[in-house]
């Protein structure tokens, strides 16, 4: 049975008041640029002229990929579980960035090949010991895909129950740029030559080999338009769980930040499942991974940052949190022309 996501488009009922409040702040009209768009978006999502960011949380979903056996990554598969341990011990990039910015980190085992046993600080949502090799067979079953979507939603509900009003999503999974490229290729017809990049750092020969493997994987299926089918054929457990979390966040009326290329592929699938997810999404950054530019263009998404990042883990998403805080701060705290006695436009 397919899980239904009941997402209401955000209400535009407050738009006139929000725009008026933004325009009457003591600044030339439009001078806070993209922060003004963020303020409007957050005001709409929270249905208030005073949106707030409380207990922001980045959820890092980890999973392994059968296609790693084809030699499509510059790093071995065991790096996935080793990095999960690093996240749990607080030593990864996302931990350091999140600490410096006051963002909570949750780490989720969506389907890492390694068995961690009970491990404090790790959420066990394991769907299997990695996906199957999607170059030769579907990555997962339709049932696993459904369970992944549902478990992603559960993580959002848990965050919300703990007072979180802003979510950021990130991932860890050796070979998951292959899954992401295949999702982009299959769902949006982007040629594999454009959709495939170097991931963790393949050299030229590695990239040629990766493209050949992905072409073989892509040839297994005809055109796919259904988000669930695409996830089942080519996704990862962490990618499907992120898609469920994004849909769950939109359903719960919570804004969420999309990280880089792989998180973007989860968003692509989520948007195919329920287009209304768009209103709640903020795109953090333009990843250096080839294919992300094409993905963002297709989504008509303007990311906030362009820092040359290609790490994943939710690092770019965490870096966007201060900008969302700033949008709330100017809307809530800035004086208006009237309250400050400043002359408006001549
Ligand atoms: O977020 C991105 O845009 C991004 C771009 C390239 C690589 N990554 C990270 O690198 C891993 C996947 O790379 P690969 O080469 O193993 O497919 C995975 O753990 C991702 O988090 C992430
Ligand atoms: C070391 C390392 C850290 C990562 N974090 C996200 N993806 C990664 C891939 C590698 C290889």
Q: What can you tell me about this protein's structure?
A:
By secondary structure, this protein is an alpha/beta fold. Helices cover 47% and strands 9% of the residues. It is built from 14 helices and 6 strands. It has helices at 15-23, 33-46, 78-88, 93-101, 142-161, 176-188, 192-195, 204-219, 227-234, 237-251, 261-273, 292-298, 315-333, 337-340; strands at residues 57-63, 104-111, 122-124, 166-172, 255-258, 281-283. The chain has a 6-stranded parallel beta sheet, sandwiched between helices. Helix 11 links the parallel strand 5 (255-258) and strand 6 (281-283). Helix 5 (142-161) crosses helix 10, helix 6 (176-188) crosses helix 8 and helix 6 runs parallel beside helix 11. It is globular, with a radius of gyration of 20 Å. The relative contact order is 0.19. The mean pLDDT is 98. Nicotinate mononucleotide binds at residues 73-75, 171-178, 199-200, 259-262, 287, 289, 292, 310-313. The active site is at residue 313. It holds the Pfam family DBI_PRT. Pathway: Nucleoside biosynthesis; alpha-ribazole biosynthesis; alpha-ribazole from 5,6-dimethylbenzimidazole: step 1/2. One of its GO terms (molecular function) is nicotinate-nucleotide-dimethylbenzimidazole phosphoribosyltransferase activity. Belongs to the CobT family.
Helices and strands, with pairings:
Blueprint: H1 15-23, H2 33-46, E1 57-63, H3 78-88, H4 93-101, E2 104-111, E3 122-124, H5 142-161, E4 166-172, H6 176-188, H7 192-195, H8 204-219, H9 227-234, H10 237-251, E5 255-258, H11 261-273, E6 281-283, H12 292-298, H13 315-333, H14 337-340
Parallel strand pairs: 1-2, 1-4, 2-3, 4-5, 5-6
The protein binds nicotinate mononucleotide and 5,6-dimethylbenzimidazole.
């Amino acid at each position: 049975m397919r899980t239904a996501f009941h997402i209401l488009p955000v209400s535009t009922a407050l738009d006139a008041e929000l725009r008026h409040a933004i325009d009457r702040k003591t600044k030339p009209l439009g001078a806070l640029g993209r922060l003004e768009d963020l303020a409007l978006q957050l005001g709409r999502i929270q249905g208030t002229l005073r949106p707030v960011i409380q207990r922001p949380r980045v959820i890092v979903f980890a999973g392994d990929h059968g296609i790693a056996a084809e030699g499509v990554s510059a790093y071995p598969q065991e790096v996935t579980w080793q990095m999960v341990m690093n996240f749990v011990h607080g030593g990864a990039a996302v931990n350091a960035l999140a600490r410096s910015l006051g963002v909570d980190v949750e780490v989720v085992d969506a389907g890492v090949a390694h068995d961690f046993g009970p491990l404090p600080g790790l959420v066990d949502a394991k769907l299997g010991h990695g996906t199957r090799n999607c170059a030769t067979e579907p990555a997962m079953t339709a049932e696993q895909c459904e369970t992944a979507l549902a478990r992603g939603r559960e993580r959002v509900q848990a965050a919300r129950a703990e007072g979180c009003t802003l979510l950021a999503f990130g991932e860890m999974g050796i070979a998951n740029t292959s899954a992401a490229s295949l999702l982009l290729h299959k769902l949006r017809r982007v040629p594999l030559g454009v959709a495939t990049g170097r991931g963790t750092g393949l050299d030229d020969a590695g990239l040629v080999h990766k493209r050949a493997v992905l072409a073989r994987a892509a040839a297994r299926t005809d055109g796919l338009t259904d988000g669930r089918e695409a996830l089942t054929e080519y996704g990862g457990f962490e990618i499907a769980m992120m898609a469920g979390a994004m849909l769950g966040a939109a359903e719960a009326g919570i804004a969420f930040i999309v990280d880089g290329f792989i998180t973007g592929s989860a968003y692509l699938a989520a948007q195919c499942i329920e287009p209304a997810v768009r209103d709640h999404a903020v795109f953090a950054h333009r990843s250096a991974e080839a294919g992300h530019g094409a993905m963002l263009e297709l989504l008509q998404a303007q990311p906030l940052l362009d820092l040359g990042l290609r790490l994943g883990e939710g690092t770019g998403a965490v870096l966007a949190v201060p900008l969302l805080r700033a949008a709330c701060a100017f809307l809530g705290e800035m004086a208006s022309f009237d309250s400050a006695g400043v002359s408006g436009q001549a």
